[in-house]
């Protein structure tokens, strides 16, 4: 019988401590500067590449950790350092997961290394699914991919929005409509290789939080990519579309679309990011409450403050357990029969928003200033209930999974 434990093994503890050291010594001290600059922190990404934290090898090792805890542990530590900088470091991973989830062995081997570059010449990648009129409603996507059989090329046209690293990426993964009749089942993912004509950056967004992470529109005008850039290949796509048409005719079963496969795999990882930000704010608040004296005693000496900290810590630990469960299930090949991935993302993201708000409150006036990091952490935490499926969408997924009903 396998041993049951919540403890990380020695190798994991070593990696966690190493990541924590980088987050504490390199990321956290730079957080305020890059938040104010609202620019991609290239020097920090380069530093991460030099020590091996920004590399395909490192993420592959964590991704294939048989316990499933490698990725959540990595996310929690890096986002504990700072969410904006950490997203600049791990944002490439969403595009890489898009290729891992839908690509062939050859595509994985060709494109993922180009997403990261190397320590002397670091690169980033972008995953482009959202559009101005297709956020939560992925089926409303309009970006079109049309096959030019004579040249064995796909021609992409459309506008993507909210793309992390959009326009500055070496490799873009673009989700597009190949069969408009099939709604979200008629989507496919494409690699747009470096320097492909027709792809340009549109508006770069000025944001409320995670301001060090670049978010922009990506405009695709007659972008031609070779047939080999269709993730999974043409044969697999044709089979999938034929099955979807068959099921649509029979009025039956849902077929997973390309973007959804990516999001399902990445939701617990987003939950772990939220746990990292929540833990960071909680620790600052705990320290502050121990040292700030009012009415002749530390403010933690009041139940009104101490109980808030007790709740904060309890919720953070509960969120981590949901994230670890979902990550373990995904790695063990256990299907999310109760939408456990969505549960973990929903709960952890809501906890991060709540806990960071409480941290601001515990720091009083100081919490409201940019002299203390909880103000930034509170702004940053707002993203977790929005990207990779809003909280409302997570609730829809959970409710539909539990009830089997098409809840709206
Ligand atoms: C900083 C940032 C980075 C991002 N990075 C990426 C990226 O790299 N790649 C990418 O493809 N996308 C990315 N996104 C996009 C993100 O995934 C979308 O913003 C998100 O899916 C929500 O879509 P929307 O903004 O269009 O909101 P909408 O879908 O318009 O939703 C607006 C509100 O309506 C609610 N709502 C919508 N439908 C329902 C419903 N049926 N029931 C109940 N409530 C509903 C939503 O929950 C939300 O509160 C990013 C977004 C941000 C802000």
Q: Any overview of this molecule?
A:
- There is one protein chain.
- This protein has about 400 residues and is an alpha+beta fold.
- It has 3 domains: about 10-120, Orthogonal Bundle (Butyryl-Coa Dehydrogenase, subunit A, domain 1), CATH 1.10.540.10; about 125-250, Butyryl-CoA Dehydrogenase, subunit A, domain 2, CATH 2.40.110; about 260-405, Butyryl-CoA Dehydrogenase, subunit A, domain 3.
- The chain has helices at about 10-35, 40-50, 55-65, 70-80, 85-100, 105-115, 235-250, 260-290, 305-330, 340-360, 365, 375-380, 390-405, and strands at about 115-120, 120, 125-130, 145-150, 155-165, 170-175, 185-190, 200-205, 215-225, 295, 295-300.
- The protein has a 4-stranded antiparallel sheet with strand order 4-5-9-8, with helices on one face.
- The chain is globular.
- The mean pLDDT is about 95.
- Flavin-adenine dinucleotide binds next to β3, β5 and α13.
- Keywords: FAD, Flavoprotein, Oxidoreductase.
- Belongs to the acyl-CoA dehydrogenase family.
- This is Acyl-CoA dehydrogenase family protein.
């Amino acid at each position: 019988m396998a041993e049951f434990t919540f403890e990380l093994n020695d190798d994991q503890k070593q990696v966690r401590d190493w990541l924590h050291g980088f987050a504490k010594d390199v990321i956290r001290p730079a957080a305020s500067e890059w938040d104010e600059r609202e620019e991609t922190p290239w020097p920090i990404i380069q530093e991460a590449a030099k020590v091996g934290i920004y590399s395909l090898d490192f993420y592959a090792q964590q991704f294939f950790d048989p316990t499933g805890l490698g990725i959540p542990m990595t996310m929690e530590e890096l986002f504990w350092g700072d969410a904006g900088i950490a997203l600049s470091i791990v944002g490439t991973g969403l595009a890489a997961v898009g290729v891992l989830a839908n690509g062939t062995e050859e595509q994985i081997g060709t494109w993922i290394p180009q997403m990261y570059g190397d320590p002397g010449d670091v690169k980033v990648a972008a995953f482009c699914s959202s559009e101005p009129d297709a956020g939560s409603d992925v089926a409303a996507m309009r970006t079109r991919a049309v096959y030019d059989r004579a040249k064995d090329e796909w021609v992409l046209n459309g506008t993507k929005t909210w793309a992390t690293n959009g326009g500055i990426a070496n490799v873009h993964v673009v989700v597009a409509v190949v069969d408009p009749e099939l709604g979200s089942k008629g989507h496919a993912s494409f690699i747009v290789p470096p320097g492909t004509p027709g792809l340009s950056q549109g508006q770069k967004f000025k944001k409320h939080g995670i301001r060090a992470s670049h978010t922009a529109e990506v405009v695709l005008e007659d972008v031609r990519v070779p047939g080999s850039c269709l993730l999974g290949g043409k044969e697999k796509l044709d089979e999938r579309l034929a099955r979807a048409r068959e099921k649509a005719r029979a009025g039956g079963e849902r077929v997973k679309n390309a973007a959804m496969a990516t999001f399902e795999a990445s939701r617990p990882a987003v939950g772990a990011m939220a746990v990292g930000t929540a833990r960071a704010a909680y620790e600052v608040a705990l320290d502050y409450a121990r040292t700030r004296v009012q009415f002749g005693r530390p403010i933690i000496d009041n139940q009104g403050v101490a109980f808030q900290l007790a709740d904060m810590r309890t919720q953070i630990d509960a969120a981590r357990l949901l994230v670890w469960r979902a990550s373990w299930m995904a790695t063990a090949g256990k299907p999310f029969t109760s939408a456990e991935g969505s549960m973990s993302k929903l709960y952890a993201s809501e906890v991060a928003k709540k806990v960071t708000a409480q941290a601001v409150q515990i720091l009083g006036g100081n919490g409201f200033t940019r002299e203390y990091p909880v103000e930034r952490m509170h702004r940053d935490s707002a993203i977790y209930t929005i990207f990779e499926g809003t909280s409302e969408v997570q609730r829809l997924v959970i409710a539909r999974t539990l009830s089997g009903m098409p809840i709206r």
